[in-house]
User: Which sequence fits this backbone?
């Protein structure tokens, strides 16, 4: 590659070409293979070695990407993903242990006592803890109903859910989703699985579907949506959702009052 | 017995993973918070980085030249940089971003990370003078500014120097066997 073409590519990457020059440039990229190859590599260099850029993959259907995707999909990797997620929740809900010298500890205790006795001090809110205290997984109604044609899939899904295998249980819930659109429990299990996986957007969409349905349990969607917002640190949205429950005397009204008071 | 963090991670040793969190997460969280992110973003990026490293180790048994913590921090930084730029592109619609599944996207992130590692490693191998001028060039600093901050006399001289240094860097990258699996991507 000569210096002239090098400068041309550089001007293109710096967005310094006129409209016509750009059009000619792109035409050349289309027809001149060696020029195209040089341009792609220059673009990668520019994007990779500039901290304000990032060089994204162009050829998604490559063998290399296919191989990594297969490793991601392996059961062992899925299990590891769950372990990492659990450790993350555990780490982020517990205060780290620190070795503090005795004097510093005593000084801290004294300071806390003084503050406690002098001002009313509200404890910092731990959203994950509040979520865990209110989600009450053991109170969930089973999605299985007598004579249900999808009972095998629903049973499998619930067993996986109870084992905390949220990724796997979603496969079954998603499978029966269309046939079970009148089963409110399926929406709730599915939404909680998404919440546990921190896929909050998908959880929110699922709960909106429940809320907008004609089902008798549609109002339950507000309670679980409040918990979704709580866990994802969207406190203002959580408060709004809890107020809707209280104002309309929806499912878990009393719990909603208590929770709103803590936020 | 000293447990290799990479092996402990791939083996799903929860105790060791928790130790990794204790040592490395605070710095990553600080970095994300300082760069337009929130705590949730930091948690997501950290989890993604751990899984990315584990998948790479499973597939190709990676050898980390720096410490595990330093490497993990770099991966987190790159993933966050990728996330911010991807978000910016989606918002401004400058480029159409293809919608792909989570795992395909995670796989793309690995390949991009590998490219970044190779390019940075080779940039560090060339002479100090070349590295300096190319760093300014890739940061899109104008030729006039490069002339002002170096001993070169004119923009033409800088241009020729950049051309030669880039040629050297290109040779080094293309000679490396790792480039073969990346060039089509």
Assistant:
């Amino acid at each position: 590659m000569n210096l002239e073409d090098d400068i041309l590519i550089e001007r293109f990457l710096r967005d310094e070409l006129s409209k016509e020059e750009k059009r000619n440039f792109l035409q050349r990229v289309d027809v001149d293979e060696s020029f195209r190859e040089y341009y792609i590599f220059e673009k990668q260099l520019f994007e990779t070695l500039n901290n304000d850029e990032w060089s994204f993959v162009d050829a998604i259907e490559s063998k290399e990407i296919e191989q990594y995707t297969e490793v991601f999909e392996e059961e062992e990797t899925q299990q590891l993903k769950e372990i990492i997620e659990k450790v993350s929740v555990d780490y982020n809900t517990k205060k780290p242990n620190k070795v503090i010298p005795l004097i510093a500890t005593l000084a801290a205790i004294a300071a806390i006592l003084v503050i406690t006795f002098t001002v009313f001090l509200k404890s910092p809110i731990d959203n994950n803890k509040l979520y865990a205290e209110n989600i009450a997984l053991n109170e969930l109604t089973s999605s299985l109903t007598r004579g249900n044609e999808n009972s095998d899939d629903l049973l499998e899904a619930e067993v996986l859910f109870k084992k905390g295998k949220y990724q796997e249980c979603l496969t079954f819930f998603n499978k029966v989703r269309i046939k079970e659109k009148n089963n409110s429990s399926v929406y709730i299990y599915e939404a909680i699985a998404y919440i546990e996986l921190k896929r909050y957007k998908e959880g929110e969409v699922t709960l909106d579907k429940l809320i907008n349905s004609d089902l008798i349990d549609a109002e339950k969607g507000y309670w679980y949506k409040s918990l979704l917002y709580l866990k994802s640190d969207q406190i203002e949205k959580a408060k709004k959702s809890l107020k809707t429950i209280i104002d309309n005397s929806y499912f878990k009204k009393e719990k909603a009052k208590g929770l709103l008071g803590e936020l | 017995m000293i447990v290799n963090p990479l092996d402990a991670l791939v083996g799903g040793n929860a105790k060791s993973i928790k130790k990794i969190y204790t040592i490395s997460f605070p710095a990553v969280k600080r970095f994300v918070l300082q760069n337009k992110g929130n705590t949730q973003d930091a948690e997501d990026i950290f989890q993604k980085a751990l899984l990315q490293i584990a998948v790479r180790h499973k597939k190709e048994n990676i050898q980390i030249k720096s410490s595990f913590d330093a490497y993990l921090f770099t991966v987190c930084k790159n993933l966050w940089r990728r996330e911010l730029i991807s978000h910016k592109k989606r918002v401004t619609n400058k480029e159409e971003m293809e919608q792909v599944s989570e795992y395909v996207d995670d796989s793309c992130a690995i390949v991009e990370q590998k490219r970044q590692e190779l390019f940075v490693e080779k940039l560090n191998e060339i002479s100090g003078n070349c590295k300096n001028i190319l760093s300014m060039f890739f940061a899109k600093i104008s030729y006039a500014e490069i002339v002002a901050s170096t001993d070169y006399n004119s923009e033409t001289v800088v241009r020729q120097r950049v051309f030669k240094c880039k040629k050297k860097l290109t040779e080094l990258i293309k000679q490396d066997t790792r480039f073969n699996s990346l060039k089509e991507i």
Residues 68-92 of chain B form the longest helix (25 residues). Chain B touches chain A through 60 residues (CB under 8 Å). DSSP finds eight helices and no strands in chain B.
